[in-house]
Amino acid sequence: MAQDPRLALAQFTAALERHLEASSAKRDPEDAAVDAAFFQLEDAFLSYQEALDEAFGENLPFDLPEEE
């Protein structure tokens, strides 16, 4: 079961902010904090997308690229 869309949106927004903070503070191109923030952002995006779909039958105007 998907979560409440407002909660999912708040988590998605927070994940965007964490990713920005990690990106702006990185000292190494392979910074583990940026990688962690990236995957948290990906998870939050998917949760928000699922919550919108289940609650309202709506989708976001973009998708994540398929992994090869």
What this model shows, in words?
It contains 2 helices and no strands. It is mainly alpha-helical. The radius of gyration is 13 Å and the shape is elongated. It starts with a helix and ends in a 12-residue tail after the last helix.
How much is the radius of gyration in Å? Answer: 13 Å
Reported for the largest beta sheet, the result is: none
- Count the beta strands: 0
Globally, the shape reads elongated
Unreliable parts: none
The share of residues in extended strands comes to under 5%
Which structural class matches the secondary elements? mainly alpha
SSE string, helices as H and strands as E: HH
Task: Name its key features.
68 residues, elongated
Brief write-up:
The chain contains two helices and no strands. The chain has 68 residues and is mainly alpha-helical.
Topology:
Blueprint: H1 5-25, H2 32-56
Helix pairs in contact: 1-2
